[in-house]
Amino acid sequence: MKIDRVKLLYIISILFLVALFATCFNGPMAGGKSYSMVQREQLVKTRNGWIIQFDLVNQQKQDAHYTIRTVVDQNQPYQEQVLVGSGGIFTFTQQIPAQMVKTGEAKITISSAQSTVPFEETYHLY
Question: Which domains does the chain have, with CATH numbers?
Answer without folding.
Answer: 37-124 (2.60.40.10)
